[in-house]
Amino acid sequence: MSVVIVTGASSGIGRATALMLAQRGDAVVLAARSARSLEEARAECEAAGAQTLAVPTDVGDRDAVETLFGKAEAQFGRVDGVVHAAAVLAYGRFEDVPPDVFDGVQRTNVLGTANVARAALAVFREQGAGSLVVVGSVLGKISATTMSSYATSKWAVHGLVRTLQAEARHLPGIGVTLVAPGGVSTPIYTQAGNYVGYDGRPPPPVDPPERVARVIVGALDRPRRESSVGLANPLMVAGFRLLPGLFDVLIGPLMRLLATSREPREPGPGNVLEPRPEDDRTHGGWRTIPGR
Fold first, then answer.
1. Which pLDDT band, with edges at 50, 70 and 90, does 292 fall under?
2. Active-site choice (150, 189, 195, 198)
3. N or C: which end of the chain has fewer CB within 10 A?
4. HSE-CB of 117 using CA atoms within 13 angstroms
5. Is 96 exposed, middle or buried (0-12, 13-18, 19+ CB in 10 A)?
6. Taking the CB of residue 71, how many other CB atoms lie within 10 A of it?
7. 166-198, pLDDT tens digit by residue?
8. Number of neighbours of residue 40 by Cβ within 10 angstroms
C-alpha cells in the first residue's frame, strides 16, 4: 500500500485520480479548499475500501500546505507519492480580467505548485524516495485568446517542473513527472472565472478525467519526464511553434467556435477566489472520445 496526497481532490482530474488510487488499495490524503466537497470525495474513496484522510487546504497558502503534509505523515507515517492537480481558470481578454482574478489564478496555479513541490521534495529527501506528479496543460506549451491568466500560470508550472527535474537528477529514488492534458470533461470550464459572456467548454477531442488519472497513476509508479494526454495536443503545439503567424490568425475564431459554449454567463470570478462546492464533481458532462 502506498500513501498518496492528492490536491484538487474535490473535483475533476484530482477526484478521478484519488478514486483510482483508492480502488487499487492505496491510502489517499485528499486536499482541496472545500471541506464539503472533500467529504464527498472521501466517502467515495472509503466506499472503495481505502484508508483516507481529508484535509481542507488552500494550496496557495504555504502554511496550509505544510499542515497538510504534517497531518499526512502523522496519520500514515510516510508519504510515497504526491499528485498536484489543484488549479483554477479564468476566461477573458487580458484587459477585461480584473487584476485580483488574474492574480488569483497565479496564486493557486503557480504559487500552489511551488508550495506543494517544496513540501513534497522535503519529505521525499528525508525519506530517500517519493514520486511527485504535477498536472500541467497543453496551454503550458501554447497560448490562446481569452486564456491569458491560465496560459501564463501553466507556462510557469511547466518551467518550474522542468527545473525540478534537472535538480532532482542527483536524488536517487525521487521522481518528478509532468502530465499535460488537452481538453478533459471536468467542471473546471463552468467553474471558471468568466469575462467573455458565455460558458467555456473543453476543446475537442475531449478525454474523460479517468484517462488522465490512469496516466497519473502510472507516472507515480514509473516516473517519466512528461506525458501528454490529448490526441490534438501534438498538432496544436506544432502549429504554435512552426506556423506562429497562421496560429495567431486562427486561434481567436477557433476559441470562439470550439472552446466557448452557447450558454450565456454573467461576468464574475467563478471559483478563482472562493470555492464553489455546489459545482464540484468528477465529470463535466461533455461527450468524450469512445474507448479513452
1. low
2. 150
3. N
4. 25
5. middle
6. 17
7. 999 988 899 999 999 999 999 999 999 999 999
8. 17
